[in-house]
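I am still getting used to backbone structure tokens and would like to learn alongside you. Label the sequence line and the structure token line clearly, so we can match residues to local backbone shapes. Would you write everything just below, so we can both look at the same thing?
***
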Amino acid sequence: MRRRLLMGFALCAFTPAPLLAREGKSVNVSTLVGTDPATSVAEQVLAEAYHRLGYELVVHRVPGERSLLLANDGQMDGELYRKLGMDREYPHLMIIPVPLLIYEIVIFTRGTSFVVNGWDSLRPFTVGFVRGIKIVQENTRGMKTEAVATIELAFQKMLMGRTDIVVGSRTSGLAAIAALKLDELKMLSPPLASFPVYHYLHNRHAALVPRLTRVLQQMQADRVIEKIQGAVLSTLPAAGR
């Protein structure tokens, strides 16, 4: 599958012209930089769905909130996956109302242990998180925070003593811990949040929304989405299952 990584200096290369019209059968969507099994699930599910409609999915990874801005401004055809309600803040985006997976926000620590009792339990600590994860940004306002581009960088800052804890995606955190062999890090329970995530398209592609919805509903009924989730998430460490 063809992929392109967009860097900040490349933004000027984009124009608001409809990408679906300009590039024929490619659907260009943006998502956050970084490796996250949840992103792999969303990408594989949507690649299959678009393939059934005769399109190729092309995913562009960009830092921070730029992913949403590119999609909302029409410089991308859509956003790979986000939580419910993003269309209220980004009015040019239309939700595809079939959940792709359940996304969990959890706390990772290195020796720090406390009772997790909602977002307020984070207040005594300096919190690291990945820039662009809206739910974390919204719920840590007024707290001591350190925003970075990836979960790996967030863990590095915690290991250097710059932060006390890291708040982020359960799947990306566990994958990074396994890849970097950070056995000294642990995940606290329960999750701070657990919610379904959905694909969004720019509203100039409104005619595609019902077609894509029907395909995803059929994939859901046939358990194709469930099988993709199982295949990808089974690679996570046992502690995360």
